[in-house]
Write a structure and sequence with these properties.
This protein is mainly alpha-helical. It contains 10 helices and 5 strands. Among the domains are: 46 residues, no CATH class; 68 residues, no CATH class. A 3-stranded antiparallel sheet has the order 2-1-3. α2 crosses α3. It is elongated, with a radius of gyration of 41 Å. One of its GO terms (cellular component) is nucleus.
Length: 311
């Protein structure tokens, strides 16, 4: 902000210098070009109060589909979700994360309905944690249900300051337990991504911020058998294979090999080895316990090939 305090300064920035400044973030060249393009769009078409551009499928699928790509909503709309449009949706490179951040921290001030993101300056408005609220005003951040985990943690903390435990999946809330409030006050409260909600009651929030996964992680009143079973995996079969044949087909284990008969024990006195030097070689030695006699058979000499060739 010190180097580029205004959109005009950022639009005139050098890509290499800006890339060097944000090198530690990674993808610095792409990020630098995108930041410069955002600044240029901000100068050419700055956001205007009462002129909202289409946000396709934000925050829910189907939002904004009644508008054409270049069509705008030319009036100040409080509920941008129903309108399917937002003041900064036309700026290059922005998406749900930037839109959520704009709604949480900037939109109320930009529209001139409050001096801060939490209703500062609104006559008669006080946060839920303070008594004596005489206004129906609701800050924009209380209507945001972001997908980013950092924004979820931020909103959980903001809701917890007002005494509510907020469900990041549905936006529902319930009174925070005293133990959770003490942990938050002492700075020891932890935050994990939610694992499950009650599928039969959309008004309940997650029971614990930390807990076991699976059916045991559901809120009270949901039994394990109520959880949806895991889908069965389909297997591919041959075109000519019938269903009955596939069911009756079974894997037959190979037959067990017959056990070999034990070698009879021969007394040491009956053992007799052939000690004829003509056949006692390293390749032909009688095994221990062998009682038969190996007979020596004379082998005729093999004629040499050289002698045969000379003849």
């Amino acid at each position: 902000m010190e180097t580029y305090p205004t959109p005009a300064d950022l639009a005139a920035a050098d890509v290499s210098e800006l890339s060097e400044m944000i090198h530690s973030l990674g993808f610095q060249n792409q990020r630098a070009r995108k930041l410069i393009k955002i600044a240029e769009t901000w100068i050419e078409q700055p956001p205007q109060k009462g002129k909202l551009h289409r946000t396709m499928d934000y925050p829910n699928k189907g939002n904004g589909r009644h508008l054409k790509p270049k069509e705008t909503v030319d009036e100040d709309v409080e509920d941008c979700i129903e309108a399917g449009a937002l003041e900064i949706a036309h700026i290059y490179g922005l998406g749900p994360y930037a839109w959520d951040s704009w709604r949480i921290f900037c939109r109320d001030v930009f529209r001139g309905v409050a001096d801060g993101y939490n209703g500062e300056g609104v006559t008669g408005y006080k946060p839920a944690s303070q008594a004596g609220n005489e206004s129906d005003f609701e800050p924009e951040w209380k209507r945001v249900v972001p997908l980013d985990k950092e924004l979820r943690a931020c909103l959980r903390w903001m809701w917890l300051r007002e005494g509510w435990e907020w469900d990041p999946l549905t936006g529902n809330k319930k009174k925070a337990a005293p133990a959770l409030m003490r942990e938050a006050s002492d700075g020891v409260a932890t935050w994990n991504e939610p694992v499950a909600l009650n599928p039969h009651d959309d008004t309940t929030a997650k029971e614990e911020l930390e807990g076991p996964k699976g059916p045991e992680a559901l809120v009270p009143g949901v039994k394990a058998e109520d959880a949806a079973p895991a889908p069965k995996r389909r297997t591919r079969r041959g075109r000519n294979s019938s269903g009955a044949a596939a069911k009756s087909r079974a894997i037959t284990p190979p037959p067990a090999a017959p056990k070999e008969a034990a070698t009879p024990t021969v007394p040491a006195s009956a053992k007799r080895l052939n000690a004829d030097p003509e056949i006692m070689t390293s390749r032909l030695r009688p095994r221990a316990g062998r009682t038969d006699v190996i007979v020596s058979i004379p082998v005729p000499p093999t004629p040499s090939r050289r002698r045969t060739a000379r003849k």
